[in-house]
Amino acid sequence: MTPRQNRNRDRAGRGIPEATVARLPVYLRALHALQERGVATVSSEELASAAGVNSAKLRKDLSHLGSYGTRGVGYEVEYLVYQISRELGLTQDWAVAIIGVGNLGRALAGYGGFASRGFRVAGLLDADEALVGQEIAGRTVRHIDRLEDVIASGRVSIAVIATPAHAAQKVCDRVVAAGVTSVLNFAPVVLSVPEGVDVRKVDLSIELQILAFHEQRKAGGPGDRRLSGEGPPGPAQYVETVEAG
Amino acid sequence: MTPRQNRNRDRAGRGIPEATVARLPVYLRALHALQERGVATVSSEELASAAGVNSAKLRKDLSHLGSYGTRGVGYEVEYLVYQISRELGLTQDWAVAIIGVGNLGRALAGYGGFASRGFRVAGLLDADEALVGQEIAGRTVRHIDRLEDVIASGRVSIAVIATPAHAAQKVCDRVVAAGVTSVLNFAPVVLSVPEGVDVRKVDLSIELQILAFHEQRKAGGPGDRRLSGEGPPGPAQYVETVEAG
DNA sequence: GGATGTGAAGCGGTTCACAGCC
DNA sequence: GGCTGTGAACCGCTTCACATCC
Question: Which helix H or strand E contains B69, and what residues bound it?
Fold first, then answer.
């Protein structure tokens, strides 16, 4: 039975767990900081602490890339930087197009983290004629009509969507049709894309709502059990005992 | 032994899984869209599709809040909106302070998603004297010296850190000392906070790097196994079998 | 001795598949 | 008949604990 035997192929390539991939950039950043401080070697304990994870996780993560440490010693910072960079694909340049040059798009265009490590802003595009021609972070804003043109000539493979929500899906369809296979979406909508295209979402409002949930619990909201003894009025919560007692 | 018996208390309150909490805002947004279109009732299948998840997951998520659906029918949109809002703590107002009014802080201050649902910008702060006094998104920028003041008088419980990396930890320490227990961090650093304070991180550069990793695999990078036998050029996508087929 | 690398156990989350109810 | 709600199986990630190697 088990009709999804072939599911394993989903974790493609070398099979680095997605959770590990998501942490590699954090390790890389910590390593760069160590490098700047002139540190040549680092233990899993130290690096883990700098990255905000525990050392077992760090070691397991790194073990997926290969055996780049030395037992009894630690990891050579420079070597590890190179290996992680290579694994993440940062040893080559990636051309990025930013679509939507409102406040957010502008912030992105000026963000140092883009230019610094392997990412090149190959185009800023907007539908607003008033913005077209303006120079932002050293690049001239072009009209959205030229989207396909910019993607093709700039060999753009990553599109950053920073448009209003209502425009995002249309823009997404266009960049995908033009050959882009990775999208970073800042618009508060669920984008639908064909198989093979990766979308990552950054959503400020969602993050805030998650924080609000936890904050509410701390403060005695509907999910909070701390007050279950007494009987304040309001949205009469349905009580469920939790072992926390 | 097992010295982490009390770890269970970490998943506090009613015990809604963290993964579920992270999806509730997405459902909420989809429900609002349905509401605007005048839809009164929705099935798990429809709502799931609008939210970009599968229906089993959606049903299990909602079941953690209670039995708010009707078998054979679906969920009443308005009722579900209320229940999720209440669970997330959006039926009350949350005061937010934004620290750092560069491009990003400005984008955040002007972001509609803040004001719209339960979040009120109670303060914009910056260390740059040139910015202090300026009006942004209808609010006057105040000097960072007044941070504690603003937090106390505005009853701020959520701080958004949009400062340069080097300033973030110091700002974080100050907002925590002033009583803030939820932090949304946009600065590319790992913040350390005392027990009981929640930090969520939004990191553009990390998202891009994750995309680059996958992009590289598609294109035949070091993690790519597809070409190990032969060598066709081009972005010959790595095929992923999906049971739907 | 000391730190890495890794089987094995543990845990949370996802998916299946169907019982339960309208 | 149709759709929700949910136990059970499954899966991947985390953590432990220690064998392994410098």
Answer: strand B69-70
Instruction: Please report which confidence band the pLDDT of residue B223 belongs to, taking 50, 70 and 90 as the band edges.
Output: low
Q: Partners of B74 in the beta sheet?
A: B70
Q: How many percent of chain A have pLDDT more than 90?
A: 78
Amino acid at A244: A
Nucleotide lying nearest to A71, CA to C1' measure = C4
**pLDDT at position B237:** 29
Report the distance from CA of residue B113 to the C1' of nucleotide D5 in Å, as an integer.
Answer: 32
Q: What CATH number does domain A9-88 carry, 3.40.630.30, 3.40.190.10, 1.10.10.10, 3.30.565.10?
A: 1.10.10.10
The two three-digit tokens of residue B94, written as one number: 């949350």
Burial class (CB in 10 A: 0-12, 13-18, 19+), B230: exposed
- At residue A209, what are phi and psi to the nearest 5 degrees? -65, -35
Fold for the domain defined by B16-88: Arc Repressor Mutant, subunit A (1.10.10)
Residues spanned by CATH 3.40.50.720 within chain A?
94-204
Q: Under an 8 A CB cutoff, do A21 and B210 touch?
A: yes
Going by C-alpha positions, the residue among B199, B150, B143 that lies closest to residue B173 is B199
Task: Give percent of chain B above pLDDT 90.
Answer: 78
Handedness of CA B65, B68, B74, B80 (dihedral sign): negative
Residue of A nearest to B93 (CA): A212
pLDDT at A244: 26
Of the candidates B92, B104, B206, the beta carbon closest to that of A107 is on B104
Q: Which of residues 9-68 of A touch strand C (CB under 7 A)?
A: 43-45, 55-56, 59-60, 62-63, 67-68
Query: What residue in A sits closest to B191 (Cα-Cα)?
Result: A52
- Written as six digits, the tokens of B191 are 């913040």
B89 is in an annotated binding site: no
> Would you say A75 and A47 are in contact if contact means Cβ atoms under 8 Å apart?
yes
Cβ neighbours for A199, distance < 8 A, ≥ 6 positions apart: A172, A182, A183, A184, A185, A191, A193
CATH topology for B94-204 is: Rossmann fold (3.40.50)
Q: Which chain A residues have a beta carbon less than 8 Å from that of B190?
A: 26, 30, 50-52
Contacting residues of A for B92, CB less than 8 Å apart = 216, 221
User: Within its chain, how far is the Cα of A211 from the centroid?
Assistant: 18
| A105 carries a ligand binding annotation | yes
Phi and psi at residue A224, to the nearest 5°: -90, 135
- Do residues A83 and A145 touch, judged by C-beta distance below 8 A? no
Phi, psi of B230 (to 5 degrees): -105, -160
Query: Strand C closer than 7 Å to the CB of B64?
Result: no
